[in-house]
Amino acid sequence: MITKLNTVALYVTDQERAKQFYVDALGFEVTTDADAGEMGRWLEVAPKGSGTAFVLADAATYEKQDRVGNSADVTLRCKDVQALHRALVDMGVQVTEPQTQPWGTFFTVTDPDGHQFIVSQE
């Protein structure tokens, strides 16, 4: 039986730039940053205390350049959508305006490689 979602791979063009975005803009922490031999740098980032991480995989190393910016539908959660939205706008991060639907309030954030994520309020 599957007990948790461990990682989601995001293919990126620049691992350092992607790391800076997830750590500095979204407040994630680096959970793994290691030499993976022929696979290059293995870099994982996650929200503090999360059991699931994004692997920021170098698209060229994995020959996945066509996957840059094409991610799975991933939803991130936060305690205060409006406050996070304002903070990201102040940092110049590409976000949509918050929307409220019957199921909650959310906005979309786009990383430097074009991956888009929905951020919703808990």
From TrEMBL:
Output the Gene Ontology terms for molecular function. Answer: lyase activity
Name of this chain's protein: Lactoylglutathione lyase
User: What Pfam families does the entry give?
Assistant: Glyoxalase (PF00903)
Q: Which UniProt keywords apply?
A: Lyase
Does the keyword field hold Phosphoprotein? no
Start and end of every VOC domain?
Answer: 4-122
